[in-house]
């Protein structure tokens, strides 16, 4: 499917423009404090010409053998901001709020169809699980959106938690 840049795209958002649109696909999750699981996810990056993208994601746990929905899973929303620092390179800020009581601020860089960010600040509610840090890597691989999320939580060191491959809808 051909992807066209919106005519009103803010110039600072160029290094992450490939992320625009709706993405759907499957992933896998694992962590020492939980059993491994398969999930289906939809991610949306949208823009209105200002120097940020609005981001929304929702996932559901699926049966690994049948692909049938087992239950709803995480939801997150936020804003991805980028400031061009050179030809096709951007300094990135990503603010996320999660349905399970966590707010994260990520910082990092984007270039060449890759976005790599790490947590700069985390806020948690009284009922949220204890999350100490995270790292996210997004990449444009053969036109698909691949991502990996490493997490430090529940007394565990930073380590792989989620990874998925999504296709543009």
Automatic annotation (TrEMBL):
Reactions that this protein is recorded to catalyse: peroxynitrite = nitrate
The protein, known as: Peroxynitrite isomerase
Protein purpose: Heme-binding protein able to scavenge peroxynitrite and to protect free L-tyrosine against peroxynitrite-mediated nitration, by acting as a peroxynitrite isomerase that converts peroxynitrite to nitrate. Therefore, this protein likely plays a role in peroxynitrite sensing and in the detoxification of reactive nitrogen and oxygen species (RNS and ROS, respectively). Is able to bind nitric oxide (NO) in vitro, but may act as a sensor of peroxynitrite levels in vivo.
Family according to the record: Belongs to the nitrobindin family.
EC number, as in UniProt: 5.99.-.-
Keywords, in A-Z order: Heme, Iron, Isomerase, Metal-binding
Keyword Isomerase attached: yes
GXWXGXG (motif): residue ranges: 21-27
Listed PANTHER family: PEROXYNITRITE ISOMERASE THAP4, THAP4 PROTEIN
This protein's pathway: Nitrogen metabolism
Molecular function as annotated in GO: heme binding; metal ion binding; peroxynitrite isomerase activity
Domain notes: Forms a 10-stranded antiparallel beta-barrel structure able to accommodate a hydrophobic ligand in its interior. In fact, this fold hosts the heme group, which is located in a wide surface cleft.
SUPFAM superfamilies: Lipocalins
Needed cofactors: heme b
Residues the record lists as binding heme b: 33, 129, 161
Chain ranges of the THAP4-like heme-binding domain: 13-168
Superkingdom field: Bacteria
Keyword match Isomerase: yes
InterPro entries listed in its UniProt record: Calycin, Nb(III)_bact/plant, Nitrobindin, THAP4-like_heme-bd
Cofactor binding, per record: Binds 1 heme b group per subunit, that coordinates a highly solvent-exposed Fe(III) atom.
